[in-house]
């Protein structure tokens, strides 16, 4: 299982990988959000502002803050181009312990 934490995504806690932030912390390189947007028969590459990861407080706090930040950028692009979004896995399958419902009580497996 890949390491992640729960951060808000479309108003719900979503298990999100922390590896982009950890890699940025270790390398000093920014996270550069990029997206392909279909425009008829062609695609346009959108390159967002780099997210420079800086230690703010503890390592855990820094990882949480920047994981939430890059997740918000993805959410913004999905809101801007919802007809082009295809998620290949169940984004909210893994639930935070405080929000999980028992199976059989309306919970999502």
What does this 3D model show about the protein?
This protein is of the alpha+beta class and 109 residues long. Helix content is 28%, strand content 22%. The chain is built from two helices and four strands, in the order E-E-H-E-E-H. The strands form two sheets. It has a two-stranded antiparallel sheet with strand order 1-2. Strands 3-4 form a two-stranded antiparallel sheet.
- Overall structural class, as computed from helix and strand content, comes to alpha+beta
Assembly state here? single chain
Radius of gyration: 16 Å
SSE series? EEHEEH
Strand percentage lies at: 15-25%
Q: Please, how many helices?
A: 2
Number of strands: 4
Looking across the biggest beta sheet, what order are the strands in?
Answer: 1-2
Briefly, what is this?
This protein has 109 residues and is an alpha+beta fold. It is 28% helix and 22% strand. A hairpin with a 2-residue loop joins strand 1 (4-9) and strand 2 (12-17).
Key traits:
disordered C terminus; 2 helices; two-stranded antiparallel ribbon; 109 residues; alpha+beta; globular
Per-chain topology:
Elements: E1 4-9, E2 12-17, H1 19-27, E3 34-39, E4 42-47, H2 59-80
């Amino acid at each position: 299982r890949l390491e992640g934490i729960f951060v808000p995504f479309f108003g719900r806690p979503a298990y999100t990988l922390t590896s982009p932030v950890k890699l940025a912390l270790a390398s000093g390189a920014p996270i550069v959000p990029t997206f392909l947007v279909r425009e008829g028969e062609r695609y346009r590459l959108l390159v967002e502002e780099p997210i420079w990861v800086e230690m703010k407080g503890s390592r855990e706090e820094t990882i949480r803050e920047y994981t939430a930040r890059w997740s918000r950028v993805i959410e913004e692009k999905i809101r801007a181009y919802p007809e082009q979004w295809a998620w290949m896995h169940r984004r909210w399958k893994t639930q935070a312990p405080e929000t999980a419902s028992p199976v059989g009580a309306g919970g999502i497996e």
